[in-house]
């Protein structure tokens, strides 16, 4: 008999309190706020380095520490959803590029916005950069703080580190997607650099820019190519005239013949807005279909490849040492 109240209490517990707890638990989970952004200053073993950044959106020069500036560069240059090791590789690449250009390190600075500016935020001139606010506005709301923490972690865990060849800062060029093989520097520009050699890249296979198709009608094709040739680049029947391409060792088009005239692969890419110069085509009577591999010039680090290589278990140093030949990652000496 004395046990009855206890049983009733236990039953009550089970019936009322337990479900209430479960519901509360669920509700807490559903409305759980995103993590707080960790804005602790990023310390660098290379010491605090500041630079003058021309913000082309605000039209003003801003003084930033190198590491805080790099958070905005990595955010602007690489998808934040990429693996942390890929983001760290991007941080080292961006730091190397930035220091190379800084006046205090003997660089040429940004020659567009006055004599004391190290770099500008215009990607077409120097290097892309966005403010924390711009990043958070661009990312999905529930992902934003997590993305920002991940990027700050990538910069913090590589703070002060740069990529060197023979103890000198490299020209740390990169591109979005190589399409399977990166390119020798002299096949895109003029100088052959020992650390910018083409390498096989199976790591970007099967991602966004691996293979894309671009279809143009004969009229569109003629109109877009006309600025690059003296004659209308279609036959009397309207068939697009495109012939015999010379290619680099990686398969990118160096030059091809349009209506009998030589046009560079780069001009074709610009004229048609193709993602890269790595393309083949098929012309029918009234249209031309381009099949394109990759996105960008193809030299140096392949960003999608960096993500793929990170997901295959490699760290940022292994990624950098793979895409740049005979290069080491080391702390910047002041
Ligand atoms: Zn600039
Ligand atoms: Zn690649």
TrEMBL record:
<dbReference type="InterPro" id="IPR013693">
    <property type="entry name" value="SpoIID/LytB_N"/>
</dbReference>
<feature type="domain" description="Sporulation stage II protein D amidase enhancer LytB N-terminal">
    <location>
        <begin position="56"/>
        <end position="163"/>
    </location>
</feature>
<protein>
    <submittedName>
        <fullName>Stage II sporulation protein D</fullName>
    </submittedName>
</protein>
<dbReference type="Pfam" id="PF08486">
    <property type="entry name" value="SpoIID"/>
</dbReference>
<dbReference type="GO" id="GO:0030435">
    <property type="term" value="P:sporulation resulting in formation of a cellular spore"/>
</dbReference>
<dbReference type="GO" id="GO:0030288">
    <property type="term" value="C:outer membrane-bounded periplasmic space"/>
</dbReference>
<dbReference type="InterPro" id="IPR013486">
    <property type="entry name" value="SpoIID/LytB"/>
</dbReference>
<dbReference type="InterPro" id="IPR051922">
    <property type="entry name" value="Bact_Sporulation_Assoc"/>
</dbReference>
<dbReference type="InterPro" id="IPR014225">
    <property type="entry name" value="Spore_II_D_firmicutes"/>
</dbReference>
